[in-house]
Structures are given as C-alpha cells and as structure tokens.
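Thread amino acids onto this structure.
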C-alpha cells in the first residue's frame, strides 16, 4: 500500500486535506470520490529511503512541544479535537508537522480515537505520551494532560539546549584547531620547505613535518572527499536505532560525558515518574512506561529488572537501590515519599535537584575542556612552527 497526500473539496465546497492509503493513484482517486470528495491534488508521500532521506525534515522536539501546547489551549477554549488539529495544521509552516497532522486528522475522520490516531506514530510521540493521552480521553481531562505533556516536552527541550550549549564551545575550539593545523600543513610548511635542496640532510623532525605536509598537499582532494563522505555516512548511520544506541553506550563510559548522560537519564526517569503518577497510573505501569523512555540500554535493563522485583511485592525504593540510576541521597528521599504517599512530589524534587546537578557537571566539564583544547591547539600548531624555525636556524648545516 502507498500513502497519498490529498487536497479536495466536498459537494458543499468545503476544503479537505489529509492522507489515504491505496495501491496506486487511480485507486486513491476512486476512494476519495467514493467518500464524496473531489480531489484537487494528490501525490504519493515520500518514504525518504536511501540517501535522499538523509536531509529530509522530521518533526522536531520544538514542533512537538508547540503542537501539544497549542492543542491544549484550543481544547481549553472549547474547540473539538479534530477542529483544533485542523486549525494548527492550517497555521503551521512545517512540511513534516503538516504531514503528521494530516495523517492524524484522516485517522480521526475514519472514527479512530485520539490516542489510537497518535499510536500510529509511536516513534514520534513515544509510549508515555500515548498512554497519558489515553488516560486523558478516559478521564475527560484531556486539556490538563496535554498541558502536562507540553510542560514535559519543554523540560526536555531546555535540557537538550543546555547540553548542546555546553558542548558547542569545545566543539568550535576543536574545529578551529583542526583548521589551523590543516592551514599550516598545506600553506605554510610547503613555502618553508622550498629552502631545502636535500631533505635527507635536514633534521629528522623537519623531514617528518615536510613529508606529512606533502601527503596532505598531494592527496588534498581525497582527504577532503573522505572527510565529507565520512560525515555523511555517520549522519546516515546515526538515523538507525542500533547505531545510535551503540554510540550512546560508548559515550556513557567516557569520563565526564558518562556523568552527563547518567544525570540526564535520571532527570528523564524522575520527570516521567512524577508526571504519570500525578495522572493516576498504577506504580508498576508507571515504572514500565518510564523504563522505555530511557535511552541507555544498560539503565533500561536495570529499570526493567526493577519492575520485575516490584511486581513480586518489593518496595520501589528497594528495587531502585539495585539500579545505577539514583545515588543513596535520592533513594532516601524516594523512600520517604513512598512512606508518606507523596511520590509524585518527591520525583519532581528529584528531577529539579538532578537538573541543578547537571548544570554543575556541565560547568565543570566545560571549565576543564576549554584549557585542554587551547593547550592542544597551541601545542600542536606551536610545535610545528617551532620545529620549522629550528630547521631554519640550522640551515647553515644543510647543503644547498
């Protein structure tokens, strides 16, 4: 089956927009006409497979947070869900989000519930989002649930921005360092190398630098092409879940980076627990859904093992103590919350404190990385320059 995106009008002249599944375009046209719609345009939705999908647009966290908060606002104003989605779709300029809203709108018009329509796109929304949406439908407080989800998405967005901002400066310094080394090897060293008529009589370190420089000059196109190809291949590979998971596991064992990942996972865990417990989910269901939100496979396995122990009758604080997610201090707070029946409040406090911890960890890592990167850049470039100057000083010992 092929998915087609269409724009059509009905017999009253009202415009309709959505998606429809069919074997081919002719069958899609017949289906729309059978529904009383007169198609104005219809085209197959690209699946973005292969290299063309590398630069395709996806629904971003910002767009998801915007959509969730806008839908909550519209529902609070008394607008129906399907009408609210149509309003957001018409005012939105993102092709990826528009395509998603078209598919949700089509599912709603075919009689699906909101949670069922969203469940068809679980890879975008996640099981936690869909589960809370179902609870909101059942309890009749959908706007409140959507507001909680919007707050959680905003929390995730701020967390991601904080981590990205912290890593941007070291990345820029590293890039400048690489470009400086490349410039010295391909432009400066070749000009200075012309003073030697017999390179074999030059100091050994001069021979090494000039040979490396010659390699970069001779194979410049291949090196640049290889780097670009590697970056493209890496970007494509990171779209695959198994590759992304492998990188995530390896990064989690790096000094400094591992601490950031662990703290970020703790924040995600605590925030999800608080939100779902406030929504009224059972503790075992909450822990099961929260385990699926974790990105690191090792921590996810720990959480699922804790779920088995929880179902066997053990307390939450006891089963979490056997995981690597929470240190002793937070476990003692969780135990108090468990005994007083205030677990949602406690997990909110854990998330808040963990966020402060993350800020401190990032600050320390950034403070350490800045001088290390500067020393590396200065030492590497300075070493090349000093070596060439020493060669020039000893030029009288080299025959011309």
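Threaded sequence (400 positions):
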């Amino acid at each position: 089956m092929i998915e087609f995106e269409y724009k059509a009008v009905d017999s009253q002249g009202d415009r309709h927009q959505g998606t429809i599944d069919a074997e081919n375009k002719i069958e899609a046209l017949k289906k729309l006409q059978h529904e009383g719609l007169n198609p104005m345009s219809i085209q197959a939705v690209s699946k973005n497979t292969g290299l063309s999908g590398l630069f395709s647009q996806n629904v971003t966290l910002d767009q998801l947070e915007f959509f969730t908060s806008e839908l909550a606002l519209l529902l609070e104003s008394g607008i129906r869900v399907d009408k609210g989605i149509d309003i957001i779709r018409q005012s939105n300029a993102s092709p990826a989000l528009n395509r998603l809203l078209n598919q949700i709108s089509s599912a709603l018009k075919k009689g699906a519930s909101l949670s069922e329509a969203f469940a068809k796109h679980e890879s975008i929304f996640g099981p936690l989002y869909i589960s809370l949406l179902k609870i909101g439908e059942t309890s009749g407080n959908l706007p409140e649930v959507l507001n909680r989800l919007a707050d959680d998405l905003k929390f995730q967005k701020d967390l991601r921005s904080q981590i990205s901002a912290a890593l941007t400066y070291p990345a820029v310094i590293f890039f400048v360092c690489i470009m400086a080394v490349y410039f010295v090897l391909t432009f400066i060293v070749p000009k200075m190398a012309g003073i030697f008529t017999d390179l074999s009589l030059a100091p050994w370190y001069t021979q090494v630098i000039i040979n490396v420089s010659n390699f970069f000059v001779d194979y410049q196109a291949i090196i640049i092409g290889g780097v670009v190809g590697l970056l493209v291949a890496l970007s494509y590979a990171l779209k695959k879940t198994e590759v992304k998971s492998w990188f995530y596991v390896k990064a989690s064992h790096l000094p400094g980076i591992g601490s950031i990942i662990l703290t970020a996972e703790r924040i995600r865990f605590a925030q999800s627990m608080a939100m779902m417990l406030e929504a009224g989910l059972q503790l075992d269901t909450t822990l099961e859904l929260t385990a699926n939100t974790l990105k690191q496979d090792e921590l996810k396995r720990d959480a699922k093992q804790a779920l088995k122990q929880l179902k066997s009758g053990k307390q939450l604080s006891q089963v979490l103590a056997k995981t690597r997610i929470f240190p002793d201090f937070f476990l003692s707070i969780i135990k108090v919350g468990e005994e007083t029946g205030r677990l949602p409040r406690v997990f909110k406090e854990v998330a808040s404190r963990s966020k402060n911890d993350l800020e401190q960890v990032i600050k320390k890592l950034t403070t350490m990385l800045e001088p290390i990167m500067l020393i590396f850049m200065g030492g590497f470039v300075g070493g090349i320059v000093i070596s060439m100057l020493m060669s020039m000083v000893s030029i009288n010992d080299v025959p011309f």
